[in-house]
Amino acid sequence: MSKKNLIVYVHGWNSHANARKAQLLQNELKDHDQFDCESITLKNHPREAIDQLTNFIESKQTEYEVHLIGSSLGGYYSTFLAEKLDLKAAMINPAVWAYKIFEYDRGENVNPNTGEEYFIDQEWIDSLEEIFIEKPSPEKYLVLLQTGDETLNYKYAEKYFSGANIVIDEGGNHSFENLEIKIPQILLHFS
Predict the structure, then answer these.
(1) Structural domain boundaries enclosing 86
(2) What local confidence, expressed as pLDDT, does residue 1 receive?
(3) 47 CB neighbour count, 10 Å cutoff
(4) Tag placement on the chain: N or C end, fewer CB within 10 Å?
(5) 96-117 pLDDT per residue, tens
(6) From CA 70, how far away is CA 9, in angstroms rounded?
(7) What per-residue confidence (pLDDT) applies to 173?
């Protein structure tokens, strides 16, 4: 008998397991006969988040065929994990050079969703650079972008994931409008 599919939703920076996209995906798939969906609240340090995700994924692989949906910084993490663990991933407005975008966020930070305090310093930023994938394998990825993303320029992801299945919607925003209409395409990518 074949394994059931598990989609692990990997949230973005300063988010949490019950973020809007995670809840949307879990609600849409709650009665699905082939796909389950789970999300975990990640540690704020990138190295700890990667270890946490790796352990979570590996604990599920005996029972499930695991796939990733990564949003923003979660897309950056998902790229590393998809390559390291040979998984398929769907990206939602992903960060691609994350180690370059946190320069102005150095110092004390608080995740507004969890209340956890943490510090961004050079070591924190270096830990992002350590997991950078120079050339992702295009066949692993479905990349969903919206031109109205006010946080990340979609053109960077379009270039970085060249050769992958890339879908660009005009307008929208960083939180990705109308994600629910993309779910069939995401499931097809994972099938």
Answers:
(1) 4-190
(2) 54
(3) 15
(4) N
(5) 999 999 988 999 999 999 999 9
(6) 6
(7) 85
| Burial of residue 156, with CB atoms counted within 10 A of its CB: 0-12 exposed, 13-18 middle, 19 or more buried | middle
Return the exposure string of 14-44: e unless at least 16 CB atoms fall within 10 Å of the residue's CB, then b. bbbbebebbebbbebbeeeeebbbbbbbbbb
Strand (E) positions, 40-190? Answer: 64-71, 89-92, 107-110, 117-120, 141-146, 165-169
What parts of the chain have a pLDDT lower than 70? 1
Count of domains in the chain? 1
Counted residue by residue, the chain has a size of: 191
pLDDT at 175: 84
Measured CA distances, 31 to 21, 26, 27, 28 (Å) = 17, 9, 8, 8
| Among 52, 122, 117, CA closest to 38 | 52
Residue whose structure tokens are 């005996």: 62
CATH value at residue 60: 3.40.50.1820
